[in-house]
Amino acid sequence: MSVLHITKNNFQSEVLNADRPVLLDFWADWCGPCRMVVPLVEEIAAEHPEIKVGKINVDQEPELAAQFQIMSIPTLMVVKNGRITQRVVGARPKAQILALVQEG
Q: How confident is the model at residue 103 (pLDDT cuts 50, 70, 90)?
């Protein structure tokens, strides 16, 4: 499955009403560490159909960034059954990102 671009318009349907865990990557084009996370997030989306993966560009979706009090990027969050179960700031290796989803 490919990475979804999450906006305030599809957040409810794609994230809160999801039928499986959702990994969210809050990012921006100008963020160096965010660019390091991009290929990892894309690999997870391609290799793990049991996980829904979405990216939220904080510059294009300031309402969502404010709603979740995103102060630093990249911020990775896991949402299960409409609730945030995990949240970390900063680039992480792929194994740690996957562990977030499995632990949460």
A: confident
